[in-house]
Specification:
binds zinc ion
Length: 102
């Protein structure tokens, strides 16, 4: 017999799996920032996300975890230089890990 404590609603389990995954991809996106900037001794706050080649700032709608990488096929929308698959994989892996932890 399962005993769910309030406010956990079993019917909403899939919702919380999805929320865990989305939260994980956002955390993964931030991890990508840390992975790139900390070894290069660059601030984590400023400047905002930008293309390393053409330096153009990346707007929020081109900076959505997983989705933007797929839509833009891993390229800069401005200069079309390639972004490493690492960005996509770190976001995906962190999303999956969040789901597993949940
Ligand atoms: Zn660019």
């Amino acid at each position: 017999m399962l005993n769910y404590a309030y406010p956990f609603v079993p019917e909403l389990t899939i919702f919380w799996y999805v929320m865990s995954f989305i939260s994980g991809t956002c955390a993964g996106s931030f991890l990508n920032v840390v992975i790139y900037r900390v070894p290069a001794d660059i601030s984590l706050i400023t400047p905002g996300s930008h293309c390393p080649k053409c330096k153009k700032e990346i707007p929020w709608y081109q900076n959505i975890p997983l989705i933007s990488w797929l839509v833009l096929r891993g390229k800069c929308a401005n200069c079309a230089c390639k972004f490493p698959i690492r960005y996509f994989l770190v976001e995906l892996l962190t999303g999956v890990l969040f789901v597993l932890v949940f």
